[in-house]
Amino acid sequence: MSAPLELPEVVARAFDVSRRAGYVAFCRNETGRLLATLAATRTGVLAEFGTGCGVGTAWLRSGVRPGAMILTAELDAKLAGAAQEIFVDDPQVEVLAADWSTLRDKGPFSLLFLDSGSPTEVDVESVADLVEPGGIVVLDDFVPCAGWPPVTDGRVDTLREGWLSDERFTSVEVMVAADAAAIIATRR
């Protein structure tokens, strides 16, 4: 068995900040590596809604191309402040202590990372026009689902169904671990 891959330095810093803040609801490493990979394909402006303490942002930053910009918004001012510590000297990252809707007029985005934990805010209708043609939306924190329509906890998962069936996007659900999945949706 090989040793686990080392974390990028910016991601290790973000984990340290999260621990100090007592924040444990951060982006998984498997999802983070996916974000870094996708960020490496993007130019322009990337965005994240729901920064937390900046672990997902750090993963995006670890892959982002020179000249690209990451905008991220966190409603909780304490968490946003913690994330700002990580990127204080980084001209490619701006962390806002604000509701995600403040980023609406800063798009369209080439990549948009969303936490699926707030389904009423991340449904397709709420964010579709925030992504440029060819732009990518990533939603994490799904439990893998093998059937159609997707069922979670005995009910049809309308958030997942909406993203996987919307004609404005070509979408796929990918397992990032045995117990975790993400949706990747590319704007047509």
TrEMBL record:
It comes from the Bacteria. InterPro entries: SAM-dependent_MTases_sf. Pfam families: Methyltransf_24. This is Cytidine deaminase. It comes from Nocardioides jejuensis.
